[in-house]
Automatic annotation (TrEMBL):
Signal peptide limits: 1-22
UniProt GO molecular function: unfolded protein binding
InterPro entries linked: Chaperone_Skp, Skp_dom_sf
Stored SUPFAM superfamilies: OmpH-like
Keyword Signal attached: yes
Organism: Filimonas effusa
Protein name: OmpH family outer membrane protein
Length: 201
């Protein structure tokens, strides 16, 4: 009986302690912010250069690679037809057919292959920007002590959230588009002096 009573007291004590912790956390409040590293990276002025280099890579390198696959397929096809008409052995024709199928697979799935290569190139070129954003983001999080960070469009209207885009942009000293909170363009732009005339000679 003493053991049961002691157990009940222990459980009651733990429940009260956890209830006090929950109340303390509720009083402090949950601090929620909204942010996305990828979006922040894309609004950086330097990201335009990444976009430009990726487009150039797609046109020059990937375009040339696709043309190479096309000409290689045509070359293999004509060799196969010629060797087939000449009565070459089955093993030679099978090997040529395999080579053609390999090249044909690259042509059939070229959109996906090109997209993957383009994404990899973009990731490599944008890595320094990513590191800058992450450093500023961590600095903001360390200072502001957020409990929860959500991506845009993952919360209901009416939910109170802080716009971390503004804080990170301020930390990085870059302008922020209006759709992400904007307003920094005016702060960063040099303001002309009003009512001051240049001194005459």
């Amino acid at each position: 009986m003493k053991k049961v009573l002691f157990s009940l007291l222990a459980v009651t004590g733990m429940l009260l302690a956890s209830s006090d912790n929950a109340k303390a956390q509720a009083q402090q409040g949950i601090k929620i912010g909204v942010f996305d590293i990828e979006i922040m990276m894309q609004v950086m002025p330097e990201y335009r250069r990444v976009d430009s280099l990726v487009r150039q890579y797609e046109q020059d390198t990937l375009g040339a690679e696709y043309r190479d696959y096309q000409s290689e397929y045509q070359r293999l096809d004509s060799i196969y037809k010629k060797d087939s008409a000449a009565g070459k052995s089955k093993s030679v024709l099978d090997m040529q057919r395999q080579q053609m199928q390999s090249v044909a697979m690259n042509l059939v799935y070229w959109q996906q292959i090109a997209q993957n290569k383009s994404d990899q190139k973009r990731a490599v070129l944008a890595q320094p920007l990513y590191e800058k954003v992450v450093a500023a983001y961590k600095k903001v999080l360390d200072t502001k002590k957020y409990t929860l960070i959500l991506k845009p469009n993952t919360f209901e209207a009416g939910t109170t959230v802080d716009n971390i885009f503004e804080l990170v942009a301020k930390e990085m000293k870059i302008p922020l588009p209006r759709e992400l909170g904007g307003g920094m363009e005016e702060e960063l732009a040099p303001k002309p002096a009003q009512g001051v005339k240049p001194a005459g000679k």
